[in-house]
Write a structure and sequence with these properties.
Shape: globular
CATH superfamily of the domain at 420-460 and 610-755: Aldehyde oxidase/xanthine dehydrogenase, molybdopterin binding domain
Structural class: alpha+beta
CATH topology of the domain at 420-460 and 610-755: Aldehyde Oxidoreductase, domain 4
Number of helices: 21
Number of strands: 26
Distance between the termini: 42 Å
Strand content: 15-25%
Radius of gyration: 27 Å
CATH architecture of the domain at 420-460 and 610-755: 2-Layer Sandwich
């Protein structure tokens, strides 16, 4: 890690600190989703479709229900039905009509792995035997996997009741195209007329899975009064509560959800899958029900990132000024609508000051699992197309790859394509300058080696967060939030609280509260948690400080505004009070119950003011000309991190994203046979990078603090992945001198390009 961070007087912020959950995790005491066991619990198994598209003609569960040890069998008739929602749709679509049918197929199955029925039995072995006894009669239908093909006039239709949003239902036919989204500014025709060079290309990317090591797992228990408790591996237990209650038509207050420790998520655990099934089985049996997906089930039936087909056109003057840019992208939603159109639209060109721009994205249903978020959903595919073309423009102009980006880079006061203004300083220029001055950028390359650069933009999230800070009688602090800890947020929260209080971090214990113990908090996603939940923690801590000052004021019999809080001590403000001894937290905590009562602070906010984040990746690859095999040999990630609250965790985010980007670019994809059945539903055949596949990932943190956060925080989890696949692809192009437009860049594709004359 290159330490280029601004020096500060902070005691804890910006320092590497011990992870509060570290001991439990390395010793195996941490309880993940499938670690919780309950007396009398049943084991659930789901029967899944072997077909990509088929009508369900009949389901016979009689043999399964009669098997000794089976306590319940359910189908879609046990899951409430919901009316189809109508447009206009919000950016994130939570249509209970679709969610309920994804949880359990109703009229027909829409992808290989679609849930059809479920059983609860006294052992996992009996449950597995029981699902094999369920007889389902199908009418197999034609299927479609590619989003562009799915928009064709002869494509198999997934939903008879789905019309393109904005269409005339009286005259238009049902469609696999659920909606479109667009952004535009300027005059495209004029912009392209001004260009000296115009490049048009087509790109494609395949669905890739988040690859979390821990499979989806939950355990549910219900009581006779209708109350349900659920433990589940989730990035957002409040979101899970809302979706489950909506699907099952429950009152929110009757569902208590606890987020277990989570063994990876990357956006893939921001929705629900088996939880409503486990709850319904528990309600029918009166016993706890445990459900854990196998790895093949995770691949076949949980959401990967969208695959895309993109057409892009860009024009540039001889001096490197980009005059116009246009993109059309067909984005796979999977079996149900909800592809990340808005984020994709905003991500294409928002890092650049292009006067004439148009982007249109298409939400297309295909016979694949419903997509889920994956670390900046929609953005890596957009950056792959844009950054590849910008690289080609630079080559055609004989211009340096960083210089063309610097010439067109946005700065403070500019706006994204969708009108988000970049208020306050942003670090894009600094990031690019740091790339160009880094010794990696000018290092010599050997034959068959290539170097690629790419830039990524992300507007991280804010939103709803809650925090509670309690002073205990012994002077220690209990800090509770509603945000599951995925990337070290427990540590960042206590660091900010300790900085505010001026105390040692070891005096603060962090807790992830369940949905009944703290106010609503949005999920840990969108690179929002350190920013938004951190602001709630700071607010709650400052409330505690005010109450501690009040205790000291009462003790000293002075007005509270004559008491300050400095370095963990309550001090009198007036110099005439030199004879008054400052009081520390432990002393104040001991006297507080008898003087004012318990001391606690809380904060519930809708955080705004999040700032744009930019990341650049610099990659060297070496290619075997005999096989087309691509080996990354050097990698440096650059990012404006705002201010790194916990630098080692930020470094880990940057390194992890780079590894995922390498896999996305070179190896990972869903492979289906001609029947639409997934062929690589396991880590043996779905080729994720391992340590031996990647070089050491060097990181360079550039700190341009966000003025809208007390400690300058910007979201850091998603930006480093956005540009990673593009950077690797650009390095391959540089090595072989041929354009490569279709991810992943597997050895046969690279070898074919090398051999083309």
């Amino acid at each position: 890690m290159a330490d280029d961070r601004t020096k500060t007087n902070f005691r804890w912020v910006g320092k590497n600190t011990a992870r509060p959950d570290g001991v439990d995790k390395v010793t195996g005491r941490a309880r993940y989703g499938d670690d919780l066991l309950m007396a009398g619990m049943l084991h659930a198994e789901i029967l899944r479709s072997p077909h990509a598209h088929a009508n369900i003609l009949s389901i016979d569960v009689s043999k399964a229900a009669a098997l000794a040890g089976v306590k319940a069998v359910i189908t879609s008739s046990d899951i409430p039905d919901h009316p189809l929602s109508k447009p206009p749709y919000p950016p994130v679509i939570n249509d209970f009509h679709d969610i309920s049918r994804n949880v359990m197929a109703r009229e027909k199955v829409l992808y290989d792995g679609h849930a059809v029925a479920a059983v609860a039995a006294t052992s996992a072995a009996i449950a597995r035997q029981a699902v094999r006894l369920i007889a389902v009669e199908y009418e197999v239908l034609p299927h479609v996997l590619d989003p562009l093909d799915a928009c064709g006039p002869d494509a198999p239709l997934l939903h008879d009741d789905q019309y393109t949003a904005g269409s005339d239902r009286e005259h238009d036919a049902p469609s696999n195209l659920a909606r479109t989204h667009a952004g535009q500014r300027g005059d495209l025709e004029k912009g392209f007329d001004q260009a000296d060079i115009i490049i048009e290309r087509e790109f494609s990317s395949q669905p890739v899975h988040q690859g979390y090591i821990e499979p989806l797992a939950c355990i549910a228990t219900s009581s006779e009064d209708g109350n349900v408790e659920l433990w589940t591996s989730t990035q957002g237990h409040f979101i899970a509560r809302g979706l489950i209650a909506g699907v099952l038509k429950m009152e929110l207050s009757k569902l208590r959800v606890t987020a277990s420790e989570i063994g990876g998520g990357f956006g893939g655990k921001t929705t629900i899958y088996g939880e409503p099934v486990a709850i319904r089985l528990s309600q029918l049996t009166g016993r706890p029900v445990r459900m854990v997906m196998t790895r093949p089930e995770v691949f076949r039936a949980s959401g990967p990132a969208s695959g895309t087909r993109t057409r892009i056109k860009m024009g540039v003057r001889k001096d490197g000024t980009i005059t116009a840019a246009q993109a059309n992208s067909w984005i796979q939603a999977g079996a149900f609508k909800g592809a990340p159109l808005v984020r994709a639209t905003d991500s294409f060109f928002s890092a650049y000051t292009i006067a004439n721009v148009q982007v249109t994205t298409y939400d297309v249903c295909v016979n694949r699992p419903k997509v889920a978020a994956y670390r900046a959903p929609g953005a890596p595919m957009a950056a792959f197309a844009v950054e590849s073309v910008i690289n080609e423009l630079a080559v055609r102009l004989g211009m340096d790859g960083v210089d063309i980006r610097l010439k067109n880079a946005v700065s403070e006061g500019c706006e994204s394509l969708l009108g988000v203004k970049y208020n306050g300083p942003i670090g894009l220029i600094e990031v690019l300058q740091k790339v160009k001055s880094h010794e990696h950028y000018s290092a010599a390359l050997k034959p068959h080696q290539g170097r690629g650069i790419a830039l990524g933009y992300w507007m991280h999230g804010g939103g709803l967060s809650s925090a509670s800070v309690s002073v205990l009688d012994d002077g220690t602090i209990s800090l509770a939030t509603g945000s599951p800890d995925i990337g070290g947020s427990r540590s960042s929260m206590r660091v900010m609280a300790a900085e505010e209080l001026g105390i040692d971090i070891d005096l603060i214990n962090t807790v992830i509260a369940d949905t009944a113990s703290i106010a609503y908090s949005y999920q840990t996603a969108g690179s929002r948690t350190t920013y938004a939940t951190g602001m709630a923690v700071i607010n709650a801590t400052r409330m505690v400080i005010d109450k501690l000052r009040a205790v000291a004021a009462k003790k000293w019999q002075v007005p509270v505004d004559e008491v300050s809080w400095e370095a963990g001590l309550a001090r009198p403000v007036k110099s005439t009070a030199d004879d008054i001894k400052p009081l520390n937290l432990k002393e104040l905590a001991k006297m507080a119950p008898g003087m004012v009562g318990p001391i606690a602070g809380h904060s519930e906010i809708n955080a705004s003011g999040q700032g744009a984040a930019f990341s650049a990746q610099l990659v060297d690859v070496e290619i075997d000309p005999q096989t087309g095999f691509v080996a990354p040999i050097r990698y440096t990630a650059f990012q404006d991190v705002g201010r790194a609250i916990s630098p080692d965790y930020v470094e880990g985010q940057m390194q992890g994203a780079a590894v995922q980007g390498i896999g996305w670019a070179l190896n990972e994809e869903y492979i289906y046979n001609d029947k639409g059945q997934l062929q690589n539903a396991g880590f043996l055949d779905y080729r994720m990078p391992v340590a031996s596949d990647v070089p050491m990932i060097d990181t360079v943190m550039i700190e341009v603090p966000n003025p809208n956060h007390p400690y300058g925080v910007r979201g850091v989890g998603e930006p480093p992945l956005i540009s990673a696949p593009a950077a690797v692809a650009n390095a391959v192009e540089n090595a072989i001198g041929k354009t490569m437009s279709h991810l992943p860049l597997t050895p046969p594709k690279v070898l074919k390009a090398i051999e083309q004359v």
